[in-house]
Design brief:
heterodimer, B: 76% helix
Chain lengths: 144, 234
């Protein structure tokens, strides 16, 4: 190998290391801005409640959705902490109990949230309906 | 080593095998489409919409794979002055770019009926948008920079440093809270897609990969011809 090639390899390695160090600092500085949603546990760990709009996300707790005059109440859980959410508006099709959801809105307290927009989150499991039904029957559906 | 990657040999592959590639691609694509439209079930949760996956996922995979290949090729070309790898990279760029666009568009078509939104700035979608931009920068650097040797350097640097974005896309769903679900198909664990849905996905992926190879061979022939003309002019 020529000395020029060796020189280029050294230059390349130095620039990669510099690049990694810079991006490490960049990411730790931007940490707070890259949060898409808070889980209920993260909300309960917050030092002070944010005034601006935030998103919270987690599972929609089983048997927690109730409706009264187009006003919905439900509980978002991460199987550790829970937040109860009130929301009035249209629900996405895939917003169902036992699936994930992300709610945009304002925190009233660490336990209550007023939602203005709901996004349904689905998990990485794909299967035909028959398979899902039979899994539900033997109680093997969503082991968590 | 340099003998293996001669212009003539790659063009030779094109001349000798292109018809076979075409036939294999068509057969795979037809099997893939028939499987995804008629012989795969609808999802228990999403219903028929799940069929968008058979285009969305292969396109996203190829967009990521092609960019990774471009980065490695650019690195080889930069460090070892192995110029044919620049032509490889230049030929691959528009293919990866097209697949990244297909991925974004089918993704937002899928997002509306499932999530309830066409677009949101979560980590996966944002890093994927960055990949589209990197492809655009790469292609534009060849158009904007007039001197081909400068253009080669700038575009290769874009491809090499853009490699950092690939793990960011891949692991964004693990490192951050995202609206996008985590990967269903993993290297070491069992896939969480039912076999009846996995088959069309894999057929479509291999068909798309064959398509990429075909376009690559055509583009390689054109790009190396263009460079030859430029060299004779200067």
């Amino acid at each position: 190998m020529s000395t020029n090639t060796n020189k280029r390899i050294v230059i390349f390695l130095i620039s990669i290391i510099t690049f990694l160090i810079i991006s490490k600092f960049l990411f730790s500085a931007l940490r707070e801005n890259t949060i898409y949603f808070f889980s209920p546990t993260e909300v309960s760990d917050l030092i002070e409640l944010p005034n601006k709009k935030i998103r919270i996300g987690g599972m929609v707790k089983k048997d927690s959705i109730s409706e009264e005059n187009k006003k919905y109440n439900f509980i978002i859980t991460d199987f550790n902490k829970e937040i109860s959410v009130t929301y009035s508006g249209i629900l996405p099709n895939l917003f169902v109990e036992g699936q994930g959801a992300v709610v945009e809105g304002n925190l009233i307290s660490r336990k209550t949230f007023v939602g203005t927009k709901i996004l349904a989150k689905h998990d990485e499991n794909y299967m035909p309906k028959e398979v899902a039904d039979s899994l539900k029957k033997i109680g093997n559906f969503k082991r968590k | 080593m340099r003998r293996i990657f001669e212009n003539k040999k790659i063009v030779g592959i094109y001349n000798d095998y292109f018809d076979y590639l075409k036939i294999t691609f068509l057969v795979l694509l037809i099997i893939g489409l028939v499987l995804s439209f008629f012989f795969s079930p609808s999802d228990y949760l999403q219903g028929e919409v799940v069929r968008i996956m058979y285009v969305h996922v292969p396109s996203s995979w190829l967009a990521l794979m092609i960019f990774s290949a471009m980065s490695v090729f650019s690195l080889i070309s930069l460090i070892f002055r192995f110029r044919i790898f620049t032509i490889f990279t230049k030929s691959l760029a528009p293919i990866g770019f097209t697949f990244s666009l297909i991925s974004i568009f089918t993704g937002s078509l899928w997002g509306q009926p499932t999530w309830g939104t066409f677009w949101t700035w979560d980590a996966r979608l944002t890093s994927m948008m960055l990949l589209v931009l990197l492809y655009i920068f790469y292609i534009l650097s060849w158009v904007v920079v007039k001197n081909i040797f400068t253009a080669e350097k700038i575009s290769s640097l874009i491809a090499v440093f853009g490699l950092a974005n690939i793990p960011l896309i891949k692991f964004s769903v693990i490192w951050w809270n995202t609206l996008h679900q985590p990967a269903s198909i993993k290297f070491l664990e069992e896939s969480t897609i039912h076999e009846s849905m996995l088959a069309p996905l894999m057929f479509m992926f291999i068909a798309f990969a064959f398509f990429s190879l075909m376009v690559f061979l055509i583009r390689f022939k054109v790009e190396s011809f263009k460079l030859k003309i430029l060299r004779e002019k200067s």
